[in-house]
Amino acid sequence: MNASSHRVCIIIPFYNNRQTVDAVAARSATHIPDIFLVDDGSTDGSAETIHRLDGMRLLRLSINSGKGAAVQAAARAAFAEGFTHAIQIDADLQHDPDSIPLFLEMLGTDPGAVVIGARCFDRDTPTLSRFGRWLGNLWVRIETLGIRVDDTQCGFRLYPLNLFHTLRLDQDRMAFDVEIIVKAVRHGYRIRNLEVPVRYFKGSERVTHFRLFRDNWEMSKLHFLFTWGCLVHWPAMLIPRYDEQFRRPMHRQHFPIDSRSASS
User: Fold this and answer.
1) In whole angstroms, what is the distance from residue 219 CA to residue 109 CA?
2) Where are the domains of the chain?
3) Considering only 34-38, 188-192, 232-236, 246-250, which range has the smallest mean pLDDT?
């Protein structure tokens, strides 16, 4: 089965990214024309900088609701239009849109999987980013009873869109990135890792919306709840089989999508 048998779109959530969002959208469109841009309550006129091309949809959230809320809004809209998969890429240009074909290759070999980008760090990578990734990966490995996720915080991913109708997702901000991975594993979805290049801007060029105390507090609460859930439900979580590097569940090998359910 190849990627051409699926309907794939791009999701780009953005908040005050007027310097980069248009470039991310334009370069992404050279690979996949159907793009859902989500303005998460920007106050800097980011949406006005985007050169609208055929296939681009612009969704606007009236107030800043968080990355998780923006991605979920776009996923629901895309599912309602009959798309089967979405590649989500952050709007800050840290990720190279020219890596999109790599995700499509993985889609062709394993359409039921969630594909998580893994940033290729180099000497310019901030120490805090390195430590944050190591710690996040460790917690998720515990919470999924051993599933290897190379970068739980990467903003470059591929989702089967029925995932958003299968899972109950409660996190609207940065903790969403972790929540959807852990809950996907617990519902039988496979996780695939894909190395992607990354670049970090320095000084005033770097735009980040990660709030050190608020987002770390939300992440800590989430990890506590997931770890407690492991203690309570670990026998049931051990039932699925393992093959090679990834856990292959005994059920939900493939996920038929009926777009009509989006309107029911």
Assistant:
1) 32
2) 3-263
3) 246-250
Q: Which residue has the tokens 């629901």?
A: 76
Task: For the chain, give the secondary structure using H, E and C.
Answer: CCHHHCCEEEEEEECCCCCCHHHHHHHHHCCCCCEEEEEECCCCCHHHHCCCCCCEEEEEECCCCCHHHHHHHHHHHHHHCCCCEEEEECCCCCECHHHHHHHHHHHHHCCCCEEEEEEECCCCCCHHHHHHHHHHHHHHHHHCCCCCCCCCCCCEEEEECCHHHHCCCCCCCCCHHHHHHHHHHHCCCCEEEEEEEECCCCHHHCCCCCCHHHHHHHHHHHHHHHHHHHHHHHHHHCCCEEECCEEECCCCCCCCCCHHHHHC
- Give 75 or 145, the one with higher predicted confidence: 75
Distance CA 254, CA 165 (A): 15
CA–CA separation, 221 and 185 (whole Å): 19
Separation of alpha carbons 128 and 107, rounded Å: 32
Asked whether the beta carbons of 149 and 137 are under 8 A apart, the reply is yes
Report the CATH fold assignment for 3-263.
Spore Coat Polysaccharide Biosynthesis Protein SpsA; Chain A (3.90.550)
Measure the CA–CA gap between 203 and 208, rounded to whole angstroms: 11
Q: Which positions ≥6 away from 219 have C-beta within 8 Å?
A: 136, 174, 175, 178
Predicted structure pTM score: 0.81
Specify the pLDDT at position 113: 97
